[in-house]
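Structure (tokenized):
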């Protein structure tokens, strides 16, 4: 007889969503972060002196964006510099917000007290 933990481990519970980014003429597969990836991202963001959207966006874009045809990761660390420096803030923000949403970190995931270990999306954007 199988242990319940084994059954849980074998389940595929990560959220996957395909988004169209017409400005870049691409479709991107978004995958929710694992609990460990999300936790490490929150720690990294909280530990930076300047809690900017740039730090948050770099991490979520790297962890959540995949090529829907190959399954390959779209962005790596080297891509973080040019995507934030060269691409439209509106487009990057839209993709990053979608990444946050599939990972359970959208504005509606904040608890009633207005607190989250990462802060609200509105705080992050300012």
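Design, position by position:
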């Amino acid at each position: 007889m199988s242990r319940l933990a084994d059954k849980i481990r074998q389940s595929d519970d990560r959220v996957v969503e395909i988004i169209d980014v017409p400005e870049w003429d691409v479709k991107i597969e978004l995958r929710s972060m694992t609990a460990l990836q999300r936790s490490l991202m929150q720690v990294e963001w909280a530990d930076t002196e300047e809690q900017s959207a740039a730090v948050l966006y770099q991490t979520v874009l790297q962890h959540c964006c995949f090529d829907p045809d190959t399954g390959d990761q779209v962005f790596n660390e080297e891509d973080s510099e040019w995507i934030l420096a060269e691409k439209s803030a509106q487009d990057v923000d839209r993709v990053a917000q979608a990444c946050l949403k599939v990972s359970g970190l959208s504005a509606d995931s904040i608890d009633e007290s207005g607190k989250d270990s990462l802060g609200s999306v509105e705080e992050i954007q300012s």
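Reviewer-requested clarification: The CA atoms of residues 3 and 9 lie 10 Å apart. Residues 89-102 form the longest helix (14 residues).
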